[in-house]
Design brief:
Blueprint lengths: L3 H4 L1 E2 L4 E2 L4 H11 L3 E5 L5 E6 H8 L22 E2 L4 H11 L3 E6 L2 E7 H7 L2 H13 L1
Parallel strand pairs: 2-3, 5-6
Antiparallel strand pairs: 1-7, 3-4, 6-7
Length: 138
């Protein structure tokens, strides 16, 4: 059984809720990623911000990226995967919440991110196809 820990990209960094959308964009550029977990002062994950979120929710609405709080890009609920969750459980979580990336936690601590492509490499093609279909219609 493949686990989230085996599929994930380790060493994920957070953008903090009190940082700005510009800070999130700079960090994404520096790390070469399209999504970052958003973490609060308590180091708990509050959500995930994507490059698309920055464009649609900030730039596209004429907001100032230098002052718009990254914390305002949180989702209603932070969706995560446990480090020891199976690939099938990760797939089910991604499908249920219609997301392409999940922060991976171990004992409440962020340990990595798992993406759709990570899951695609670990599961049989038909399961991945079902997820891609779900995400494509969302």
């Amino acid at each position: 059984m493949t686990t989230a820990r085996e599929m994930m990209t380790p060493g994920t960094r957070c953008v903090n809720t009190d940082q700005t959308a510009a800070d999130a964009a700079r960090l994404m550029t520096e790390l070469g990623v399209g999504a970052l977990p958003i973490c609060g002062k308590d180091d708990k994950i509050k959500g995930v911000v994507t490059d698309r979120d920055l464009v649609v929710k900030v730039l596209g609405r004429g907001r100032d990226v230098g002052s718009f709080p990254a914390g305002d890009l949180n989702q209603a609920e932070a969706v995560t995967a446990g480090a020891d969750d199976s690939a099938e459980t990760v797939l089910a979580t991604m499908t249920a919440h219609e997301v392409r990336r999940l922060p991976v936690i171990d004992g409440g601590r962020l340990v990595g991110m798992v993406s759709l492509s990570d899951v695609a490499k670990a599961l049989p093609n038909h399961q991945v196809g079902d997820l891609v279909e779900t995400l494509s219609t969302a």
